[in-house]
Amino acid sequence: MPSSEHVQRVRMYLSRDDQWEGRPRYLAVLDRLRSAGATGATAIQGLAGFGPGHRISTSLIEPASQRQPVVIEWIDRADRVARLLPLLDELLEQAMVTVEDVPVYRAVMRASGPFAVDRTVGDTMRTPAPSVPVSASLGEAIALLIERPIAALPIVGPDGALVGMLSEQELTWRVGLRLPPALIRLLTPAERDAILAPLIGRGVREVMSAEPRSVSLSTSLPQALVTMVEWGYAQIPVIGRDGILAGIIGQDDVLRAAVEQAEPAESAVSPAEPPATVGLVMQTIAPQLALGRPLALALAQLLSAPSRRILITDGVGHLRGTIDLAGALTALAGEDRAALLAAIQRPGPDGHAPVSIGAGRALDALVAPEPPTLRPELPITYAARHILELGVDSMPVVDGDGRLLGIIARGGLIRALLQQSE
User: Exposed (0-12), middle (13-18) or buried (19+): which is 232, by Cβ within 10 Å?
Assistant: First the structure.
């Protein structure tokens, strides 16, 4: 008996002598479907038929004639049909095309993409978006960045239109604030005032990016991800047709949308390829040090590591814990803490902390307990779900004996999702 699940069947009615750029049109259609990622399609030649012109074509009566009907039958998941069918418009011209739901008894198909075809930025964004007016002081903007867990702050004009954006990039490049808001939250009031006092009197207008990148309400989720990756944004503003700020969307929001769209546990439609796994996406090179190494070396490596985190292993490669910049700031006191803050704000030519910090001490005292880990055979959707739940940027990957193999990071997951969306 057929199951209650449905896929879609697309039929395209052509003639064998229809041409496209010097070759049979039906072959051009098949090539485009194959290159675009369709599951499969078949061109079926008819014995006889007629079209709107009522001219009979039959291979039995006119063996030399090429006026024979050809039907292309393409069966696929509904979301893929909706995404790929418009790509055939120029090829099909006046050809009749039908689409129908088909019950499935058993099928093997390419896996569905990670995003629902009808889900857009407008369906996924967070609203209202935090923002400050263009007339605000830089102090007000930084205070909001510290208060809210956002990486980019939209700047709006008097009418609510997006006119700029303030992110950690602008704060680093234009005013020299190298301490990210997440770390500023950990400072004492005196430490915070010492770092922010020179910036308070400036206006946000002179520091913001005056050409902010944005996406519209109708932008697809994969395209929003592409924009964020290309411009290095963890979050990006969403605007309506009138340019008014409508919301904000981040990489976390898009990852969450992908995690929510999961394949049914039991299905009559089986994927044609195995799901992408952590082992295929992970980075095998990650900042790491062994227990017993000098604390000064760990702090220097922390400042030069983009993730501001180091994985700590024992002598045979087993993961034993982590050290991150937030944990180091919390654990250090007195001159060592002050020196680390100064090194973050005014790094040397190589970006390393002064070796005087923690001189003569091992890193062991700063090691946080073993973090949650992943196995290489797990699907990437499992990794994405755990990264979102834990609120981290990456997770270590270990083998069955607990030996460190690498890390899987948000960036790698996003690239994998974009590949699956093609």
Answer: exposed
304: part of which helix (H) or strand (E)? helix 295-304
In single-letter form, the type of residue at position 42 comes to T
* Residues with pLDDT less than 50, the chain: 1, 64, 353
Which of 2.60.40.150, 3.30.390.10, 3.30.70.120, 3.40.50.150 is the CATH number of 6-109? 3.30.70.120
Query: What's phi and psi for 358, nearest 5 deg?
Result: 65, 25
Predicted TM-score (pTM) of the model is: 0.75
- Count CB-CB contacts under 10 A for residue 284: 10
Annotation: CATH topology of 278-420: CBS-domain (3.10.580)
> Domain residues of the chain, as ranges?
6-109, 121-260, 278-420
CB atoms within 10 A of CB 218: 12
3-state class (DSSP) for residue 379? strand
Tell me the C-alpha distance between 152 and 236, whole Å.
7
pLDDT in tens, 224-274: 888 888 888 889 999 998 889 999 999 889 888 888 775 555 666 666 677
DSSP H or E stretch at residue 133 = strand 132-133
Q: Do domains 6-109 and 121-260 have the same CATH topology?
A: no
